[in-house]
Amino acid sequence: MHICIFAHLHIDTMMDITYTDVIKILVAFALGALLGLEREYRSKPAGFRTLIMITVGATVFTILSYRIGSATPDRIAANIITGIGFIGAGVIFKEGLKVSGMTTASTIWIAAAIGMSVGYGAYYLAGGVTVLVLVILMLLSKLENSFDRVHQVKFYKISFRVDEYTIEELEKSLSDCGVNFTINKVLKNNNELIVFYKIAANKRSFQNIDTYLMETKTIKSFEV
């Protein structure tokens, strides 16, 4: 009697993973690897192994959502999205006035969506979205770089002593560089003035601004 029960449990355990499950996991691995290779090539925080694990993990959770309770598979799917949000937030960095990692965070988010699509059996949807994401990451980045050479928007934090320099002098110099600018905020700390600017210009104009700020001795410091 005990032998029969053990054999029955052993068979159920062996049958827990099906041929379809293996196919889904392999497809998720391949699609995650494609996204990961592109991110790894660009030396981004979330690279080859990370995106594979995210895609495969989302696929496994989606498979389990049917096994645990097929009546409400959306509960686990909703938690996948929440969990991926935490992971994506971990690759976003703020350096001074510059925020980086948004594209990598978005790739993590879409990798989870691709994994979920595979888990639901929507192979063509998952494959098509993967190709579209690779086109965006690889080809449109070149187009984005071309736009950046023509027009960019940056935020500058410039500080100087009020008895050595004035905002009027600074803004005249910015105008001479041929840029459009607006003041976001002005702070005064004893004899030091800190001005925050939003500046729109092309790549060459920004180089001229940086050169001017570095060579002007009355400028105490600046951040971009």
Low-confidence stretches: 1-15
| Order of adjacent strands in the largest pleated sheet | 4-5-3-6
Number of helices: 9
Rounded average pLDDT: 81
**What kind of sheet is the major sheet?**
4 strands, antiparallel
The span between the termini is: 75 Å
Q: Give the topology string: H per helix, E per strand.
A: HHHHEEHHHEHEEHE
Total strands: the figure is: 6
Shape annotation: elongated
Number of domains: 2
Structural class: alpha+beta
Roughly what percent helix? 55-70%
Beta-strand content estimate: 15-25%
Radius of gyration over C-alpha positions, nearest whole angstrom: 26 Å
Description:
With 224 residues, this protein is of the alpha+beta class. It folds into two domains: 16-138, no CATH class; 151-223, ACT domain (Alpha-Beta Plaits). The protein has helices spanning 2-14, 19-41, 48-68, 74-89, 102-119, 123-138, 140-150, 167-176, 203-215; strands at residues 93-95, 98-100, 152-161, 180-189, 192-201, 219-223. The strands form two sheets. It has a four-stranded antiparallel β-sheet with strand order 4-5-3-6. The protein has a two-stranded antiparallel sheet with strand order 1-2. A hairpin with a 2-residue loop joins β1 and β2.
